[in-house]
Structures are given as C-alpha cells and as structure tokens.
Amino acid sequence: MNKTTVTGNHLSFLLAVLLNIFPGMYTPCFCEEKSASQTKTDIIRMPLLYETDFEQGATDWEPTDSDAWQIKSTDKGKVYSQSKMCKYNPPFRSPFNISILKNIVVEDFVLDVRAKSTKQDYPHRDLCIFFGYQDPTHFYYAHLGKKTDTGANQVHLVDGAPRRPISKNLPAEKPGIPWDDDWHNVRVARNVSDGTIEVFFDDMSKPVTSIRDSTLKRGRVGLGSFDDTGDFDDFKLRGIKADKKTVYRMMHCNAGTKTDVVTWQNDLRTKLFKLMKMEDLIPKVESLPFDARENKSWSTENYTVKEMTIQSTPGRRIEIIITMPKDEKKSFPAVVCIGGHSSVRYSTYINGNDFAGKPTIYKGFASELAAKGFITISTLVSQHKVYESDRTLMGERLWDLMRCVSYLKSLPNVDKSCIGCGGLSLGGEMTMWLAAMDLRITAADSCGFMTYMDQMEQNHCMCWKFFGLRELVDYPDIYALIAPRALECQNGRKEPSTQFTPELAQKAMNEIRPVYALFGKSNSLSLDIHDGGHEVDLPALLAFFDRCLKR
User: Fold this and answer.
1) What is the C-alpha separation between 115 and 234, in angstroms, rounded?
2) Are 509 and 471 in contact (CB under 8 A)?
3) How many other CB atoms are found less than 10 A from the CB of residue 184?
4) H-type helices in 328-386, by residue range?
5) Is the pLDDT at 181 greater than 90, yes or no?
6) Given 233, 404, 467, 487, which residue has the most CB atoms within 10 angstroms?
7) What pTM value is reported for the model?
8) What digits encode the pLDDT tens for the residues 430-464?
C-alpha cells in the first residue's frame, strides 16, 4: 500500500447529518470490557482524518529535531524513523523525542500505528504516543515502557509543569510493555465527554491502561519516545476535528536554546504589534516631537511635581504627571507608574509621603519612589475608548506608555539604562505589556495581575482581549518576552478564587523560569506572594527598584 490521505471534512458533515437524524448513533465508548468487534464498530463510525504509510515522506509531521527523524527504507517499504536522540531541551521534565502531526486538531479520536523499538534492550526501553498536544508545556503522552514505575509505563500529563503520571499502573498488576525487536500494534483512544483514555498494545480487545482525565480537551497527536529510538509505520487517525479557533498559544515559547528564544521574542513582538495595530507607529516612538507643555508645578521637600501634556501621536496629545529630584546635576533612575481600572494620573501617588488622600491599594508607590530619588511619570491608561480610527484599545494604552518612556529618555537627568515600570491590576497588566514590548525597560514590577487568560474570561472586564491574541499566546508567554530583564510579580494570598490567585501565579511562573534560566538570569525573576489582597506590597516593590535600577 502506498498512500498518505488527509480527509474528514465531508465525512464529518455526513456524520453530523446522521447524528441529527439518528441521535445516539455515535456514542464513543472505550470500555475495558468491550469486545474487539465493538471497538471496531466505534472506530468505523468516527471519520477518517488522516492515514499514511510514509511511502511519500513525512512532510505532514513536525519533529522537535529534524536531524533525528528520517524516512528509512526497509525490505518491506519505508518507515518513519526516530534514529537518534533529539537535540531538544523541553521547558519541563518531559520527553525529548517528539514528532507532531501538523494542522489536525482532534477531540475524540482513535489513533492506530505500527511501532518498533530500535533501542538495545534494557529495563526502561520505551516508545511514546502524544495527544492533546497544544504547545510544548501542555499535552498528554502514553509512555509505553518495558518496566512500570512512577515515570514509566504510565499516561502522563504535562500542564505547565514537569510531567506527572495520571495513571496509577502498579508493577505487580501491569509489569510493562514486552518490547522486543519486532513490530507491534499500538492504539490510543480518547473520549472527551467522559475523559476516558485507553492505551492498547497488540491486543485490541483489552487496554493495557485505562484512565479518565479531562484537563486538556483537544489538541494534536504525535509519535516518539522519551529518550530512546524507534520506527513507526501505517499510521491512521480517526476522530472528531476540533475547531482550530479553539486551539490557543500557537506561539508558546519553546525554551530550546537562547538563540531560539531571542528569535521567538522578536517574531512574537512583530506579530503582536501588528495585531495591536501599532506597526506604523513603532518607528516614530522617539522621533515624533513631544511639544511638551507645562500646565502646573509645585515643589515638595525632595522633588518637584509637574502636570504636563505631550504629543502621543501626530493627532493626539496626552496628559502626564512627572516628578523630578531637585538635584539637577545628577542622573537618576526613572519609573513609569501605572494605575488600574478607574484610576487617574494621580492614583499611584495618593497616600504617599507628600501627596494627600485616603489610603489606597497603590500605597502611593509613585510618590514613595519620588521621595527615594527616582524620576517618576504617569499617564492615564484606564480609558475604554479608542481615540483614533484603525487602532485598538490595548494598542493605544501601550503606545501612550511607550511615549512616556521616550519622554523620559529625552530628559538630560534620566539614566537611560535604568528605566523601569510598575503598576497594579490593569496597571500590572500594562506593566507586563510595556516591559514585554519595549526593550528600553530595564526592570518591571507587575502587581496583582499574573494569571491565565482562561481566568480572565470570567468575572473580568474584557478590555484585555483583542483579535488574534489568544490564538498566539497566553500571559506567561508575554511575560517571557521580558527575559532576561528584571521582573517581579506580586500576588496576594487574600485574592478571591475568581481573581489573581497565587496558585495561578505560581503555575505561570513555572513556565517563565526556564526562559530566564537559558539566559543565566534566574535571579532576575521573582514572585512575591504577600499576605495582602489586591494591593501593592510596597516594601517589596521599593526594594525591587532599589536593587534593579539604582547604581
């Protein structure tokens, strides 16, 4: 047989019609007690999405290391061979040798393949089948190991952390997969509605592993091994395609090498600027005249406060607050101070040493910084109105903050190599965006925000979301754009479960750490879990900027 077939669209349509006429016709059930004939019937009812015997090559496949995978000729035809260890460093402890089928995302599926282990025999000989693959830190894999222990001969989940077994195979009950030097039949079946995952080896009537887990409901499938070698042939995938729009994080950061990460950072910034409709403005970020106009000023014991306006775009001006130490003969570090929802330009200054007002969640961190010898600047980014046509809300917010950075750089007494940014809530979000997209930022303190987009879809203002964002990244990816520059995130233990919880912050931080480690800058990344709620931890913020911006 010599074929590679991608199909399923017309079959999916026919299946949908039949299901409407005969409800219950398709009810995939992968039960351990089911007979081989029942399993075959269920498979026939699922549309054939893809099959190949690899005679025409493997252009439909995406390996972690193309040099380690090849089409190999045998006396019985061509096979897809993972012939050596991939040069791939996964973000977390997980398999190294992976090749993922391109472009097909499935929910329910049955995957069949012939597999042959080519590793010299030893107790942990293995091959793996991957599924639910969304990105390098979110996927399942069935580890078909010759020996059973907590890491081998189990179904594992990689979910923004090192792989963990979700099956509970015990050596006495499931001694392992009897790999030898011959070909074997492998099947993995998934029913998303009840979470059933079944793994078969040679005997298609009784699974070697059967569990339930619904953490990842869709994704791509793939082949490989943890750290061995193997050959694959006669691959067939039946299933129900998932809507491609529901698959997110297609540009998730793959912390392979430092060069890979830098390339990824540059590519992602370009794509995000385009989605935010800012690409025409970026070349003008410093060349556009400011035409700065002072409206009001006054002095405190240590610094001067000015209310001003500057040109943001050729057709729009913005109001700013800026504080200046009184010693004009020195250069000083500077911080862009960013308020959250319903904030005004003064919100980050109120309740500080020199500004009047009731206590606020911002703790007056901007005026506290001003009193400590920092130049500070703020502008309004809490608006929900797009001012100019063909712009986006998030793009205009970010651009105004970038212009604040440009204005700081234009001042003779600003240390250009020591410009930071910090904020709370929406201000924490915009701190993330500013530091991620503007390489002139040296250090960022993002307070009360680090989370995931799934959390933000519920009980939050949706101003964070713009077209194409979720298909590209999640928040840990945006934070990873800041690497290797200094980043502190703050989350309070008293945050409600629907808000910016420390648990989600810790999970996100675990995704960012490998990126900083590649740069040798693990100490530049920190997570402050404090005892408060949705508020700034003032001592930690002041210490962070003292440490990262003062020479």
Assistant:
1) 9
2) no
3) 17
4) 365-371
5) yes
6) 487
7) 0.61
8) 999 999 999 999 999 999 999 999 999 888 999 99
State residue 209 phi and psi, 5-degree precision. Answer: -145, 135
Q: How far apart are the first and last CA of the chain?
A: 70
Can you tell me the distance from the alpha carbon of 416 to that of 449, in angstroms, rounded to the nearest whole number? 27
Cα distance between residue 207 and residue 33, in whole Å: 9
- Say if residues 236 and 51 touch (Cβ distance below 8 Å): yes
E-strand stretches of 390-524: 414-424, 443-447, 486-492
Q: How far apart are CA 480 and CA 277, in angstroms?
A: 22
- As a whole number of angstroms, the distance between CA 227 and CA 461 comes to 45
Q: Angle CA(250)–CA(215)–CA(509) in degrees, nearest 5?
A: 60
Q: Give the pair of three-digit tokens for residue 118.
A: 């080519």
Closest CA to 221 of 147, 111, 295, 122: 111
Look up residue 411 and give its amino acid. Answer: L
3-state secondary structure 386-411: CCCCCCCHHHHHHHHHHHHHHHHHHC
Q: Provide the 10 A C-beta neighbour count for residue 202.
A: 12
Whether 83 and 90 have beta carbons less than 8 Å apart is answered as: no
Distance CA 280, CA 408 (A): 22
236: which strand partners?
51, 112
Pairwise CA distance, residues 144 & 225, whole Å: 9
In Å, how far from its chain's centre is CA 422?
Answer: 22
Q: Going by C-beta distance under 8 Å and a sequence separation of 6 or more, which residues neighbour residue 294?
A: 306, 307, 308
- pLDDT at 247 exceeding the cut of 60: no
Phi, psi of 434 (to 5 degrees): -65, -45
- The answer to whether 240 and 108 have CB atoms below 8 angstroms apart is yes
Task: Read off the amino acid at residue 221.
Answer: V
Residue-wise pLDDT for 299-344, tens only, equals: 998 899 999 999 999 999 999 999 999 887 789 999 999 999 999 9
